[in-house]
Amino acid sequence: MPFFQIKTFQIKPSLVKLHAILSVSVSSFLKKLILLLILTCSCISTTFANESLRVVSGEWQGYSEVDGTGIYWNLMRALYGEYPLQFDVLPYNRALRSFADSDVDIILGVYREDVEHAVLPRWHLDMEAPLLAFYNKNRVHLSKKWQLKNLQLAWVDGYNINRFIGEHLQHYPVDNFELGMKLLQGNRIDAFIDYDYMLPGTRPKNLTSFEIAPAKRIYAAFQNSPKGEQLAKQLDLGMAKLRESGELQRIFGDLYDRSILATVDVKKPKIIWLVDNAKSYIGQIDYKYLSSELQSRKLLFSQLNNYDIEAHVISLDQASMLLEQNYNVCMGEQLKTPERVGKYLFSQPYTFSLGQRLYYVAKHNNKTEEPIFLTAFMAQQPGKRLGLVKARSYGKALDQQISHLPESSRYTTEKALREDSMLQLLVQGKFDYLIEYPNIANNFLSQTDDKVQFSNAPLAASSAYAVGHIMCNKTPANNDFIGQLNHYLTGLYGKDIFKKNLRKGVAMQDSVLFEQYYQQVFNSY
Cα–Cα distance between 353 and 464 in angstroms, integer? Predict the structure, then answer.
């Protein structure tokens, strides 16, 4: 259908000449308009080409040196050679602040969760090396993350190491790797946490290390603006061309294989899988009882070869932020509530665990086996407090009871702490009682050499078990992802290995009761 209709009429002879002039003028105008549109479209990709680009990075040997040499700087030149480029090397925390203040266009070598509201490309920049805890073997003996809690630690300011080892750990912030190692060698700290590629030359004989967190993808991040979006798209297109020509491998040299850039497949939808504890990385577990979530995830991920699933360790506060973004973001072992159902996508049942109980340090409290009503129980405990995690729901019935507790009976955290941090605070006496799941409390005890014993009591308003689901933000890709998850989950329900692994995660000794719970949760699928 045309945008307008032309009504026919007779042109008077006196108007013929004017009509001809106007026809030429309109034709000329249309030609100019079309030419302008063509030029405009062709120039979209170079809108900002005359503007300089400020790129910031930490100082990483071989990657982003102060003198302008290194893999990342060479990559930026190959991708954005048409721009006047300004490279700045700053202490990592200052680099993050500069990016947050919009003083720079691009920041290199960041984790997805390090930069809020930034634009990230589909291609990653590199694969970060495993995170290590360095220590003097002649001074301390370490092999597990939980052993760090009573030591004096240090790491580079801005590295959010607490997400890997627990928010309750204190540390001494340093500006760079060299200062951290100097403090370690001078016996002023017990352990320094960083990456082994930062070590210059041969490692000192008295220095050893163990892994805190496995290798993970890092990114170039861009400002959340039209310019940032264009630059991110240009990186994606440029990385593909560089790989195809072989230039990308030449730039990375011997480190190309470690970067896993050769495996990037942009046809696969990328799913950002959030975990709130580094110990839940597959293959990086030192728990005595592997969680049912981990067991289920291992079985599922082995079948999802048509997706690029990228795990990110985050705090609970960061999880809420990332779920609000436009990326495909999912989390496992989430309770299904009416409020969440309206906001997120949910899979079929994925895990289950024994229900929440009330935990307390045995030597400070009298043991009880009777189901506890929180309001009545806390009223009988003058001067004692219940530890509560900010913004955490304990279920509708328990939340209602908690809402009736006086403020003097509550200890609410200022931020959303993880379970192991809350249990540590319970041990330290910051509060007297804590609502938690048995498998989490048992794993915490298995990770400590403190002579701590917990007692626990059933909660009258808590279900015998809790059902966990995979929860994703609402995107078209996640809608398809949930459909495939449900298909594979249905197939797993009838397999002995799935049932066996779930029972391991629950750590339930009563086989009859486990079978009863299993049938109630999974039998209808």
Answer: 9
